[in-house]
Amino acid sequence: MSVSPPQQKIWWNEPVPKSELIWVIIAFIWGLIMFFAMVWWHIYGEQNLSNESYRITAEDFSAKTEAMVEKYKVREESGYPVVHPPPGEDIYLIARLWQWWPILELEKGQSYRLHLSSLDWMHGFSLQPVNINVQVHPDYEMVLTITPDSAGEFGIICNEYCGIGHHLMLGRMYVVDERGN
Amino acid sequence: MLEQYRICQTTGLRVFQSTENLIKANAVVAVIFLAIGGLFGLSIALTRWKAVHLLPADWFYLALTAHGLDVLVVWIVFFEIAVLYFASSVILGCRIATPRWAWAAFALMLIGALVTNVAVLMGNSSVMFTSYVPLKADPSFYVGIILFAVGTLIACFVFFGTLVIAKQEKTYEGSVPLVTFGATVAAIIAVFTLASGAIILIPTLLWSMGYISHIDTLMYRTVWWGFGHSSQQINVAAHISIWYLISAVVLGAKPLSEKVSRFAFLLYVLFLQLASAHHLLVDPGISSTWKVFNTSYAIYLAVLGSMIHGLTVPGQIEAAQRKKGYNNGMFEWLRKAPWGNPAFSGMFISLILFGFLGGISGVVMGVEQINLIIHNTIYVPGHFHATVVAGTTLAFMAVTYLLVPLIFRRALILPGWAKAQPYLFGLGVAGISVFMMGAGTLGVPRRHWDISQADAILPYDFPGAANLMMGLNGMSAILAALGGFMFIVVVVGSILFGKKIDASTEVPIAPPEDARVVGEYGNEDHPAIPGTIALVGVFFVSFILYYFVNWKYLAEVWPLR
Amino acid sequence: MSEENHQEAADSNESERIPFMQQLLDNPFLLLFLGVTIPTIFYIIWGVMEIVTIPIAK
Ligand code: HEM
Ligand SMILES: [Cu+2]
Ligand SMILES: [Cu+2]
Q: Domain residues for A70?
């Protein structure tokens, strides 16, 4: 029994029952498949998180963001600037207590280098309803290349607890068809 | 000085007085905190049910912090210490090493738990049990956790000391029993866990007191999860040991193969703790190489360990049942299992829910890329209520039904309640797990007071199905809480008012038939286990399907590089 | 001493020798050592090294 010592003194040399042996082999192979699936997806898959990141101060990151807003602002909504940068551009999104700033307007099917960082606490970038979720740290900037392939209005939720206003921390992103509508 | 012991009438185990007292104290405190933490759990589930929305925002975040701490840390760890003492001193029939230190450990843990609870209830430490910097709690919050961790570490070394004494005094022959071995694995993982905790929480304490100006958030998350996630691996090792323990005591089952089961535990020692990386898969700056290697426990070797236990635990039950003559067809052994014995039913439900809900979802969300569509959604609490509540907590409840007669020497009161409890609790917890996972796939965030965000400047509407899921979650939470309440009533009631069991009284529940039966190891006489193989086959197919379905979900989101 | 005696002694010695893997599994402190060093190296140290080598933004 499991509550008494093994009956045979040398149990390591016992033959392993066949059913168990087969299962061990199957499970091992399944593990290999799952491992190489991740590697394979890095090569052939389209959704991989970028490894590009930098250390950055809050001042530098907000300066970069403000420069972008200055340059590409197209209108204002509920007090938020809406920016429409050209495709391929570096775009910036600030996370801070408790807002995502500014509102980005992107073109469908185009790629952008999205820079994410927080000016204060940790936040969670959660793009809905697409459901892309990324951890956003202060002092670190993550750069990911995104290619919106659906048009519409998207919400950005904060899904890392960031204090009492956490549930109010919502942002927005627009994706428009090429000609802009 | 020779210490007093008694021989347990039902199991023939030697129970030392000091061990018995220590197990009682740790288990009682554990159960009290389960009751408190469970109430907090119910209150947050009811808050997230839109139609009820019980608590105001500040209370919600306070209750969520308290819930995580009281159940995940205090309940589980106190109970684990009781399990360690049982698996060393009682199973090996050896006096416990340095009972004074064990009591000191107990005192530190209790004081730590109380200090942290007070800090949280004062309202200025609603930082969640993860206490990510730069969210700052009151210094006493960290002091409490550190005291608790130091106490736990001492208790682990009392366990190791007891192993040494048992070996020196030759209270057993050959290798330690499998259950003790599994508990050793839990204690080993605990040492790494607590060391990581100390490395990160001591500087955080100093920071909260103003002696250190800055703590790097990425560093914090990396080291903290060495503590936070590894502690979950302690639970896995502990509750799997309990599965083996219960099947041995209730059914007289013996391992199909010592070699295979112990090898599976060895894989845990070597690789399980790497999975702390599950929490960092979408963090900046850490390379995919690190993420892929660690999240896969070095090519899924620890998953291999779990899949082995998934065969050997039901397999040994099947073998024991077939030996008793329940040999008809594939599943007579299962149908005729002691389903009315809450120790057994709790254990088996724990096994099934842990494997199917917790295990599969855990591996899937731990895939580096798939984590992008799951990280920090309420899918995550859905997953870990399947592991740590349906798996660990239910297994601990099940073994409590054995500890009450064996250690507290009281008969269970309300046997009807005891009988129904694992089913009700299992159903409720399966509900909260499934519905939170469902809501998570719709993007609902975790740790979030109000997803309808009426006051937000840029509101976002979740699909109606999300609110439906959260409502169903609230209803399941009521069932789970009811099951938890029944457990507390039966256990506390039995300890206080249950009929005293002495040498002459029978244990009314869980009569361990054949408890001393030990067959030949090896495989000549061990019966085939077709039923288990069928179960494992169903499991494997579900696993594969769910795994690939999630790759498909991932393939549908925006391309990302 | 006869040849057979030798043979017997060797045999019983053989069956007494505990396989390496069993010795490892029976030694909690060796397991403790492995269980602490492996995650410390692969998870903590490697992870921390990655974090400290993150470049500074241009
Ligand atoms: C009656 C039983 C329980 C119910 C109804 C329940 C319900 C919940 C709910 C609704 C959440 C919040 C999810 C969120 O908003 O993020 C939660 C979080 C959590 N629960 Fe439970 N739970 C129960 C028992 C337990 C037990 C027994 C454990 C541990 C052994 C546990 C561990 C946790 C943890 C660690 C969290 C996360 C806290 C955080 O995000 O900081 N729960 N639970
Ligand atoms: Cu936030
Ligand atoms: Cu937040």
A: 53-176
Number of structural domains found in chain B: 1
Tracing tokens 């609230």 back to the chain, one arrives at B474
pLDDT in the model for residue B528? 86
Q: Separation of B130 CA from ligand 2 center, angstroms?
A: 15
Is B10 a domain residue?
no
Q: How many domains does chain A have?
A: 1
For the packed helices B530-555 and B297-323, what is the interaxial angle rounded to 10 degrees? 150
Q: What is the pLDDT of residue B526?
A: 61
B553 inside domain = yes
Q: Calculate mean pLDDT across residues B531-560.
A: 96
Chain C residues in contact with A12 (beta carbon < 8 A): 18-19, 21-22, 25
Q: Find residue B16's DSSP bridge partners.
A: B5
In this predicted complex, what is the ipTM? 0.95
Residue B464, domain member (yes or no): yes
3-state helix/strand/coil string of chain A: CCCCCCCCCCCCCCCCCHHHHHHHHHHHHHHHHHHHHHHHHHHHCCECCCCCEEECCHHHHHHHHHHHHHHHEEEEECCEEEECCCCCCEEEEEEECCEEECEEEEECCCCEEEEEEECCCCEEEEEECCCEEEEECECEEEEEEECCCCCEEEEEEECCCCCCCHHHCEEEEEEECCCCC
CA of C48: which chain B residue's CA is closest? B219
Give me the residue from A11, A60, A140 closest to C22, CB to CB.
A11
**CATH number, domain with residue A106:** 2.60.40.420
Classify residue B516: in a domain, yes or no. no
Residue B300 to residue A19, Cβ atoms within 8 A: no
Is the distance from the beta carbon of residue B18 to the nearest atom of ligand 1 less than 6 Å? no
- B453 CA distance to ligand 3 centroid (A)? 13
* CATH number assigned to the domain comprising residue B360: 1.20.210.10
Considering the domain boundaries, does residue A111 fall inside one? yes
Q: Which of B8, B376, B403, B517 to probe the A interface (max A CBs under 10 A)? A: B376
For residue B295, give the chain A residue with the closest CA. A35
Q: Is A11 on the interface with C (CB under 8 A)?
A: yes
pTM for this model (two decimals): 0.94
User: For ligand 1, atom 20, which residue shows the shortest CA distance?
Assistant: B68
How far, in Å, is the centroid of ligand 1 from the Cα of B381? Answer: 7
What is the domain extent for residue B400? 338-502+530-561
Please say if the pLDDT value at position B510 is more than 50.
no
Q: At what angle do helices B230-251 and B297-323 cross, to 10 degrees?
A: 10
A159 CA distance to ligand 3 centroid (A)? Answer: 5
Q: Mark yes or no for CB contact A12/C21 under 8 Å.
A: yes
**3-state secondary structure (DSSP) of residue B525:** coil
- E-only strand ranges, B191-258: none
Contact C22 A56 (CB under 8 A): no
pLDDT for residue C4: 45
